[in-house]
Structures are given as structure tokens and as C-alpha cells.
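Question (not urgent): is this output format expected?
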Amino acid sequence: MARGVQTVNIHEAKTQLSRLVDEVAEGKEVLIAKAGKPLAKLSPLREQKRRRTPGFLKGKLSIAADFDAPLPGDVQKILEGET
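Got this back:
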């Protein structure tokens, strides 16, 4: 087993889940074992920072020339709740 990693059996994990999650939130890892054989690992979530790529859609999107033109009267009335 890795150093500094706590191993608990399934029964203990079920009864102590809240405490184990608190420990994991502090950066520790916990192995969950059945009959002494590790089956799962609780580990803290690492925030994944997505790299932004400015302009990655350049040339793939367009805005219609009449994008901000007034809506037809019947559509405008529907949107304003008039029928």
C-alpha cells in the first residue's frame, strides 16, 4: 500500500463515511477494501482549470445582417403577451 494512505473495510467506510469524506477534503486518500483487498479509492477532487483558447470559433459563426432588425408585428405581439 502507498504510504500515508488509509485503508478501511467496507463496513467501516459505510459507518464512517462522513468522517472519511472530511479527511479526503483535507487532501488525504482512503482505500476501501473487502476482505483485505483494496477495491476503491476516495481521493480529493482536483479543480481542473480549462485553458481558454481565444478565437477557436473564428470563422465558424456568423451573425445575420438583420440580427437587430425589428421583429414582424405578429411575432412581437406574441412575445409581449398580446394575442
